[in-house]
Amino acid sequence: ATGGAGPARGRPKPPQLPPPAWELARAEGGIDPGRKEIGESDLRGSPDALESVAVGTHGGADRIERFGVTPDAAPRVSAVLTVSDQAAAVGAAIDSLSVSDLGNFELLIVDDASTDGAGERIRAALARAPWLSATLATRAQRRGIAQARNLGVELAAGELVFNMDARDRPYPHALGRLVEALDNASRAAFA
């Protein structure tokens, strides 16, 4: 027994996440390469011009906002991100997905009536990554993370669903490896 704190011998150190997308853009002279390929006609929305739809609920209205590019085909994966008063963490979660190696995915964010400014942080993070196809559903009344996740799955257009919370930081290769694992195991229901 070693008895001391510290990493175990022989165990590899986990890889570091790349910097958030906005830091990559700043390092490359302020323009993200992904933004060069996207024209104004490709964008579904921005914090200044939102495409919004009110959806009836049990005593209020949920608001749906769409951001980023309009996909040419149905996405392979729908990443469902649930948020409930996690303004400090949600930007980094979106940044980590914005550098995903898998290009064919959509991001669905369900804000469960946050009161800490999470909605503004979400919109700011999506503005930094206009190449993402993203939908933000903001609940008028808090109903809990389980119901928020269910709403995200209902809105999902992808063949596969990847659930995550605001404090999660998936590696850039995470979605691709999960898709590969499911493709290679025809009887698997989840990975």
Layout of SSEs?
Elements: H1 21-27, H2 33-36, E1 51-56, E2 61-68, E3 77-83, H3 87-98, E4 105-111, H4 118-127, E5 133-138, H5 145-155, E6 160-165, H6 174-184
Describe this structure in words.
There is one protein chain. The chain has 191 residues and is an alpha/beta fold. The protein is 29% helix and 21% strand. The protein has 6 helices and 6 strands; from the N terminus they run ααβββαβαβαβα. The protein has helices at residues 21-27, 33-36, 87-98, 118-127, 145-155, 174-184; strands at 51-56, 61-68, 77-83, 105-111, 133-138, 160-165. Strands 1-2-5-4-3-6 form a 6-stranded mixed β-sheet, sandwiched between helices. Strand 3 (77-83), helix 3 (87-98) and strand 4 (105-111) form a beta-alpha-beta unit. It is globular and about 45 Å long. The chain starts with 20 loop residues before the first helix and ends in a 7-residue tail after the last helix.
Give the end-to-end Cα distance, rounded to a whole number of Å. 34 Å
Going by helix content, strand content and strand pairing, the class is alpha/beta
**Secondary-structure element pattern, one letter each:** HHEEEHEHEHEH
Largest sheet: 6 strands, mixed
How much of the sequence lies in strands comes to 15-25%
Number of strands: 6
- Strand order of the main beta sheet, please? 1-2-5-4-3-6
* Unreliable sequence segments: 1-8, 13-59
Concise overview:
The chain has helices at 21-27, 33-36, 87-98, 118-127, 145-155, 174-184, and strands spanning 51-56, 61-68, 77-83, 105-111, 133-138, 160-165. By secondary structure, the protein is α/β, with parallel strands linked by helices. Strand 3, helix 3 and strand 4 (105-111) form a beta-alpha-beta unit.
